[in-house]
Design brief:
By secondary structure, the chain is α+β, with helices and mostly antiparallel strands. It is 38% helix and 20% strand. Strands 1, 5, 6, 7, 8, 9, 10, 11 and 12 form a 9-stranded mixed beta sheet that branches. A 5-stranded mixed beta sheet has the order 14-13-15-16-17, sandwiched between helices. A hairpin with a 5-residue loop joins strand 16 and strand 17. Helix 1 packs antiparallel against helix 4. It is elongated and about 90 Å long. The termini are far apart. Bound molecules: histidyl-adenosine monophosphate. The site of histidyl-adenosine monophosphate (HAM) has 23 residues, from strand 7, strand 11, strand 12 and helix 11.
């Protein structure tokens, strides 16, 4: 056992010192602002759930990554690896008392036992935005619009990221045409999600091991090469619901001025088992990071968890890749948040005087942020502390250059010094 002072953070977790929290808050504020602008309401669930909520619903990859344990009552529990099952459970619990459609968002802390790699940690935050009760691509358009506005709000543009859009429904229709059975489809989806990582050869090997004919892998390859809706239409040679939904979505988002941010990418399938329709992932365009966000339509999850049949669409955006990307582009806030006023006592007391504390109290009641030397001390030391704390204005409390009821104030940005009535501070 290492000595307590040598105990490090567990692998894949982070400490958030104040300078790190500033960045987290910047991300969370950017997320929240856009969620509210789009009319989504915030909710939250527990950080652990019954293990069975994930098994069989999220798919094998997530289950392999679960942190699960037995509690003292011998219950099988798991730290949440994603929020969607909790969201579905919460919606089901309220059932018909909810007025549909609902638009909810949350910023949960999630846990996945992942292999340590860039952009993936074992504990991370993830913005979730979800809609229940909208059957048309208006829902997908709302969510993708929000993603784009959010990333634009952080200072990113269409040269920095792209939303890659595809459809499980379309892929499913294509697999039907190739004669792939429903059970085999799940195998194909999970192998496809790994394809970019494991390579074409390993992908083909998985299909082969699962008894899927070689010709099917060839046809799929052709399908993935398609980069336009027209090309896909030619390959399908038939009516396709998946394709017409994609066409509608691209047209809608295009008319909203988002065309430059979108690309049709049929190789996007998503690893999670529950998606049933349009799926999308957001990637950066330069640094080749992992996905910034991913989501899609999951019309059967709520009913498979015991609820009534309700359509749902949503996505998750992690904090890790996003912060990496913004950092690489110099788009993270630098410096401290600072305070509006630092009250320096020119009489250099050992402890702050009550009169100074009262002035702080008054300023705070007017929504100003105020700091002062808790330990008193020499004026020089107080000034250094003001600087350290990123104060915008310095008040020389008790300066004889100001009469009673007034203060000598220095603007630390301009260096300007003036005498101001306390009531006008
Ligand atoms: P996901 O693709 O598993 O989807 O995760 C979405 C995003 O969360 C990823 O694109 C990535 O930014 C971030 N993320 C995932 N795993 C990690 C990790 N280990 N470390 C850091 N970031 C990570 C879901 O979780 C779905 N439940 C999203 C959803 C909501 N679908 C519908 N509604």
């Amino acid at each position: 056992m290492p000595a307590p002072e040598h105990i490090q953070t567990p692998k894949g977790t982070r400490d958030f010192y104040p300078e790190d929290m500033r960045i987290q808050n910047h991300l969370f504020e950017g997320w929240r602002r856009v969620c509210r602008a789009f009319g989504y309401e915030e909710y939250e669930g527990p950080t652990f759930e019954h293990l069975e909520l994930y098994v069989g619903k999220s798919g094998p990859e997530i289950v392999e990554q679960l942190y699960h344990f037995k509690d003292k009552g011998d219950r099988d529990l798991a730290l949440r690896p994603e929020l969607t099952p909790t969201f579905a459970r919460m919606v089901n619990q309220k059932g018909s008392s909810l007025r549909l459609p609902i638009k909810w968002f949350s910023i949960p802390r999630l846990f996945r036992y992942e292999r340590a790699q860039r952009g993936r940690l074992r504990e991370f935050f993830q913005l979730n935005m979800d809609i229940v009760g909208c059957d048309t691509v208006a829902a997908e358009a709302d969510l993708i619009g929000a993603v784009i506005e959010m990333l634009k709000g952080f200072g990113l543009g269409s040269n920095d990221f792209a939303v890659r859009i595809s459809s499980r429904k379309l892929l499913s229709e294509f697999l039907d045409r190739l004669g792939v059975s429903s059970e085999k489809k799940a195998v194909v989806y999970s192998a496809l999600d790994k394809r970019a990582k494991i390579g074409e050869e390993a992908f083909r090997k998985i299909l082969q091991e699962q008894g899927i004919a070689v010709g099917i892998a060839d046809s799929l390859e052709g399908f993935f090469q398609s980069r336009t809706l027209e090309d896909l239409e030619a390959k399908l040679q038939a009516q396709s619901v998946g394709l017409s939904e994609l066409r509608e979505l691209f047209s809608l988002l295009g008319q909203l001025g988002y065309a430059d941010y979108l690309s049709l990418d049929t190789s996007v399938v998503r690893g999670l088992a529950y998606y049933t329709g349009i799926v999308f992932e957001v990637f950066d365009k330069g640094q080749n990071l992992r996905a910034i966000a991913g989501g899609g339509r999951y019309d059967s999850l709520l009913s498979s968890l015991g609820g009534s049949s309700m359509s749902a669409v949503g996505f998750g955006m992690g904090d890790v890749v996003l912060a990496d990307l913004l950092n690489g582009k110099g788009l993270l806030p630098a410096g401290r948040q600072g305070v509006d006023y630092y009250l320096a006592d020119v009489s250099s007391p050992d402890v702050p005087r009550v009169e100074l504390l009262r002035l702080a109290q008054t300023l705070r009641s007017k929504n100003r942020s105020v700091a002062y030397a808790l330990n008193g001390g020499k004026l020089k030391k107080q000034l250094a502390e003001a600087n350290d704390q990123g104060a915008r204005k310095l008040v020389f409390f008790g300066s004889d250059r100001a009469e009673a009821g007034s203060c000598e104030v220095k603007d630390l940005a301009t260096g300007e010094q003036s005498v101001v009535k306390e009531t006008e501070l």
